[in-house]
Amino acid sequence: MGSFLFFTIPRDKTKSKICRKTCLLRNNGCEDWVILQKTQNMSINTYYTILGITECATFEEIQKAYRQKALLYHPDKNKSDNAHDIFIKIQKAYEVLSDPERRSKYDNDLNSYRQNIFNSINTDKTNRGKSDIENIQKQKKSPINKRSYKREKTSINSKNILIFICISIITIYIAYHANLFNINNHNTDTINPTQKIDDYVEEVAPIVEEVEDSNIYKNNHLMNGDSPFTEYFGINSYDDSQDNYITVNNGSDQDAVVILKNITSKKIIRNVYINKHTSYDIRNIPEGIYEMKCVYGNDWNPNLLFNGMKLGMFQSNVHYSSQANYKDYFNMFSERTENGISIPYYEVTLHKVSNGNMRTKKINQSDFFEK
Question: How far is 227 from 164, CA to CA, in rounded Å?
């Protein structure tokens, strides 16, 4: 027996708080950190600000913030130009902060970076103060009349006043924008989907781990037959006593991951990676009736997360589909006939073909990963 299937391919082209800790900040006292904040009023971007949480956040708070941000900026639901870039940053932030060991190292590096800035500020102020005192002392000792000395002293005082005014203006400007950012976050727990990433967060401090450049996974793919979602769905099931098989022809321009779901047990018994313009035989399938679902895309990124698990996923041209009618599910039961045993096999085409006898429907990511 044999049947022919084609899958249509759609044409898809916290409230934030300042963490003023009363306990000891990892490896550094809170007092030093608060002094640094008051002195510099820094507004560097960190993984905490990307997720919109404080540096005191618990694992549950981190997980909740990640889910909210990931849902808001997932490329399947957010079609803004910068949604994908923000989504990658959110994934990386959660990957680091959800791991206690990596979070501890990250916090230590971040605190060291802040302390270095604090030290450099104090050093500059100390040196500048010493220089002014030495100049005044030299002027007092020099053989000049009182009138000249007073004029020089007035000049020095004017210069100090000018410096003080400039510093005050800069401090007020930074404080104003920091307060404006906090007010905006107080009014809404979400981010404007049309807001550019540069408007939302500033560049990450040099000591912060860099978000991986998504371009490094351009044209990346797995091997035919790989099972990337085993950690989520469980190990693949085989029955060596069955000689049945489903031949999958992927003639599309996207790679695909195909899963087979037993409609009785609801268990996913296979997840198979199939490269574009190739074919693969899914063999030794346990007897049962199966639904097939597919996810298509390009540029496989092994670091993308789903439900906090690093499963990997396509970075571009991602879309999902499944069989549209339960009558088209695959019957993999062997049948005894007067001529012997009838072994089921099917040939599936993942690209549009003429006179195809099966239709598909578009599904979303949640439908695909439903257990």
Answer: 64
